[in-house]
Amino acid sequence: MQNNNKSLLWNAVFVLVLVAIASLVYLSGKRINYNWNWDRVVPYIATNAASAVTAPEDGNIVVGENNQLVLENLSGEVVVDLSAYDTVDVYEGDLIFEGDVLASVEEWRKGPILDGVIVTVKISLWSLAIALALGLVIGLMRISSNPALKKLSIVYIEIIRGTPLLVQIFIVYFFIGTVLDLERFTAGVVALSVFTAAYVAEIVRSGIQSIPRGQMEAARSLGMNYPKAMIYVILPQAFKQTLPPLAGQFINLIKDSSLVSVISITDLTKAGREVVSGSFAPFEVWFTVAALYLVLTGGLSWAIQLLEKKLSASD
User: Using an 8 Å Cβ cutoff, are 89 and 55 in contact?
Assistant: First the structure.
């Protein structure tokens, strides 16, 4: 009974803290005399507003074979069949010039913010996969008995961790990207992967070194060579140990992906910046952008927690 009362008390404290934070945000908005217009943001996420269908070239409006209006070009070829559209704005016999509005159609389509979310997810997934593979290799080099491999990994880790990600993005895009003719998206993925891999390498190194040496010795005594012992015995155990710090690093990767906007990749952050200039609703847009980043990082955190539970249950 006493434990239940304590639980209720601390849950009440939790609710009060959330209410206090919400009240602080509300009062701050009142104090700066800001008019909230959340409806301005919605069309930039997704909208079903009517979109115009324009003529791709000059021509005439005639009745086609199915007794529906079509646009024929000057050569008599059917360019646009207007039977598929909800509202037709032209009539039989009209002379049409390129760019004229022919019809309008209502359908759900993505807004720039949702497009930015998709780009952020793509660049994060690619960077995560490459960083994990590269970080594993660098981490194994870090604990290698080969002096050249070990020193190369140390130099790599110290240089990458000791320089800002923004500078690395500029170097990859404007220097390496120019030499190798990399696209913006590829350059962004490379920069994020190289940056994150340095941290993953140290996480992998610490995870491997946390496994008792007896595990390796036992594997070798069973006839396994070093690579097999590392793959089948050491790395699976180290992976369980390193999952929480890896999760934190991957969450940072999603947030760090916002920096690729400096090389004109229209990710979530750049999309938000563009929407602010067109919607005149800065606070609503940036709160929405922050919420979407929270959804992405929260989803990743939830997935990793499920993986942790599954791995712990298999022990």
Answer: no
SS3 302: helix
Length of the chain: 315
CATH number at residue 65: 2.40.50.100
Q: What is the C-alpha separation between 178 and 176, in angstroms, rounded?
A: 5
Q: Mention every residue, 6+ apart, whose C-beta is less than 8 A from residue 91.
A: 61, 69
On whether both 138 and 186 belong to a single domain, the answer is: yes
Write the CB contacts of 110 (distance below 8 Å, at least 6 apart in sequence). Answer: 46, 118
268, 289, 299 from 295: Cα distances, Å: 12, 10, 6
pLDDT of residue 254: 93
State residue 3's pLDDT score: 67
Query: Are 209 and 309 found together in one domain?
Result: yes
CATH value at residue 307: 1.10.3720.10
The pLDDT assigned to 71 comes to 84
Check: CB of residue 117 under 8 Å from CB of residue 268.
Answer: yes
pLDDT reported for residue 101: 85
Parent domain of 81: 51-105
Spell out, as residue ranges, where the chain has pLDDT lower than 70.
1-3, 313-315
- For residues 253 and 192, the answer to whether their CB atoms sit within 8 Å is yes
> Which backbone phi and psi does 104 adopt, to 5 degrees?
-135, 150
Instruction: In whole angstroms, give the CA distance from residue 100 to residue 86.
Output: 17
Whether 68 and 188 map to the same domain: the answer is no
